[in-house]
Amino acid sequence: MTNRFAVVLAAGQGTRMKSKLYKVLHPVCGKPMVEHVIDQVSKLNINKAVTIIGHGAEAVESQLKGKSSFALQEEQLGTGHAVMQAEELIGSEDGTTIVVCGDTPLITAKTMEDLLQHHIDQEAKATILTAYAENPFGYGRVIRSSEGNVERIVEQKDASADEQKVKEINTGVFCFDNKHLFQALKEVSNDNAQGEYYLPDVISILVAKGETVSAFQTDDIDETLGVNDRIALSQAEKIMKERINMDHMRNGVTIIDPANTYIEQSVTIGRDTIIYPGTMLTGETAVGEDCIIGPHSELKDCAVGNNTVIRQSVAHNSSIGNKVNIGPFAHIRPQSDIADEVKIGNFVEIKKASFGKGSKASHLSYIGDAEVGSDVNIGCGTITVNYDGKNKFLTKIEDGVFVGCNSNLVAPVKIGKNAYIAAGSTITEDVPEEALSIARARQVNKEDYVKKLKHNQ
Ligand code: UD1
Ligand code: CA
């Protein structure tokens, strides 16, 4: 097979985004646009991929480290000028080069592979990926001769009224014979409305030389969406979200309302899990089989086992076992480790705490910086008092402990195996195994005291 190269254009600032964040780093379903592009390009058996960086070069490079080589475009003088920056890395090679814009996050490897195949079949020196757009505004238009041959591409800002009516657009994805590409780029001028060196001008240059130039039209206009502003960003998000949700449904996950379910690309979900509306699954979240997630739950970077139910709750960066029942309205904060068959109920906040098998905190508690054994029952309103204003301390609750309602466990403190804590206790000292600990003022009943008060009035 001939050599294959890829050039991804990612040096522009993206003025129309009106953002501090460089355009190609804006995430779509949790992953920066340009990374979507690189990940698809990586599936194409590429010898070398070069990303052109400029604005936010360091940030883009560190985001894509290991996935691409880089060439710096110090001044952004146009897409043609951008590609030229790859000359040092690949200019002398024989082969086919695919050029993609870093702001087309929906493009797929399949479409690029079809384009490459068409390019090879046609023995072309350049092939444009085009699409038919109902509303072509803003895109370069593909101008064909009366015989239907591609002649050139004209940008929106340079197009005549007649040319603006053309609905076949340049998607910004091209295949070139590598050497012809770099040769033709030398002839591109910046004599146009934007004063830029346009990559699409390579097309008319090659046509003028009598080289074969072809176009491959995709019927999936969605894939070619170029994200220049936040409106297009939201459209890309919507389409990508649909794709991700459909993949999960095809794999055996029930999603009750896909339009209101937000799952990032990195997330995995097992079969027969049901996702209710308003749910967000993000980051490195992995949900097992036969779970019920939602409605209105947010899991970020969580590992969840099988047969677990998480309703109206938030969990971040934690591990949650099998047959666990969480919510409604629980908050699992980072570094929590919840074993099988645990119950974390209404208005319970967990932080950096481990829970052993079968333990329960069913209502209104804060359990932070704690190690909770198995089969522990934490009564309603229990609080681990973990912070003295300066440092955090650990609460250890061993297996089988029963903590009565409304207890304060003032850390550092250890409650020994099978011990009982009487309701309303403020525990400041360790409790031995099998003990009952009561730490509250003894109740005093003053008989007929109310009558005395009334008498004195
Ligand atoms: C470009 C095409 C247009 C096409 C559209 C498809 C040109 C001149 N126009 O227009 O025909 O229909 O994409 O989405 O190519 N970039 C650089 N360096 C630069 C300029 C741009 O790296 O000097 C990068 C940008 O970061 C971006 C990509 O190239 O990722 C495209 O640039 P953009 O300014 O968005 O071009 P469009 O106006 O969308
Ligand atoms: Ca663009």
From TrEMBL:
Recorded hits in Pfam families, A to Z, give: GMPPB_C, Hexapep, NTP_transferase
Domain Mannose-1-phosphate guanyltransferase C-terminal per the UniProt entry, residue ranges: 264-351
**Required co-factors:** Mg(2+)
Which residues does the record give as acetyl-CoA binding sites? N386, Y387, A423, R440
> Looking at the record, which segments are called Pyrophosphorylase?
1-230
Active site, per annotation: H363 (proton acceptor)
Where does the protein principally reside? cytoplasm
Gene3D superfamilies cross-referenced by the UniProt entry: Hexapeptide repeat proteins, Spore Coat Polysaccharide Biosynthesis Protein SpsA, Chain A
Binding residues annotated for Mg(2+), in chain numbering: D103, N228
Q: Which CDD domains match?
A: GT2_GlmU_N_bac, LbH_GlmU_C
| Co-factor binding details | Binds 1 Mg(2+) ion per subunit.
Compartments where located: Cytoplasm
Q: Recall the GO molecular function terms of this protein's record.
A: glucosamine-1-phosphate N-acetyltransferase activity; UDP-N-acetylglucosamine diphosphorylase activity
Q: Where does UDP-N-acetyl-alpha-D-glucosamine bind?
A: 9-12, 23, 73, 78-79, 140, 155, 170, 228, 333, 351, 366, 377
Q: What EC number(s) is this enzyme filed under?
A: 2.7.7.23, 2.3.1.157
The answer to keyword Nucleotidyltransferase applying to this record is yes
Q: Which reaction does it catalyse?
A: N-acetyl-alpha-D-glucosamine 1-phosphate + UTP + H(+) = UDP-N-acetyl-alpha-D-glucosamine + diphosphate; alpha-D-glucosamine 1-phosphate + acetyl-CoA = N-acetyl-alpha-D-glucosamine 1-phosphate + CoA + H(+)
- Which pathway does the UniProt entry assign to this protein? Nucleotide-sugar biosynthesis; UDP-N-acetyl-alpha-D-glucosamine biosynthesis; N-acetyl-alpha-D-glucosamine 1-phosphate from alpha-D-glucosamine 6-phosphate (route II): step 2/2; Bacterial outer membrane biogenesis; LPS lipid A biosynthesis; Nucleotide-sugar biosynthesis; UDP-N-acetyl-alpha-D-glucosamine biosynthesis; UDP-N-acetyl-alpha-D-glucosamine from N-acetyl-alpha-D-glucosamine 1-phosphate: step 1/1
Q: Which family does it belong to?
A: In the N-terminal section; belongs to the N-acetylglucosamine-1-phosphate uridyltransferase family.
Q: What does this protein do?
A: Catalyzes the last two sequential reactions in the de novo biosynthetic pathway for UDP-N-acetylglucosamine (UDP-GlcNAc). The C-terminal domain catalyzes the transfer of acetyl group from acetyl coenzyme A to glucosamine-1-phosphate (GlcN-1-P) to produce N-acetylglucosamine-1-phosphate (GlcNAc-1-P), which is converted into UDP-GlcNAc by the transfer of uridine 5-monophosphate (from uridine 5-triphosphate), a reaction catalyzed by the N-terminal domain.
> Do you know which HAMAP family this protein is assigned to?
GlmU
User: PANTHER family recorded for this chain?
Assistant: BIFUNCTIONAL PROTEIN GLMU, NUCLEOTIDYL TRANSFERASE
- Give the protein name, as stated in the record: Bifunctional protein GlmU
From which organism does this entry originate?
Heyndrickxia acidicola
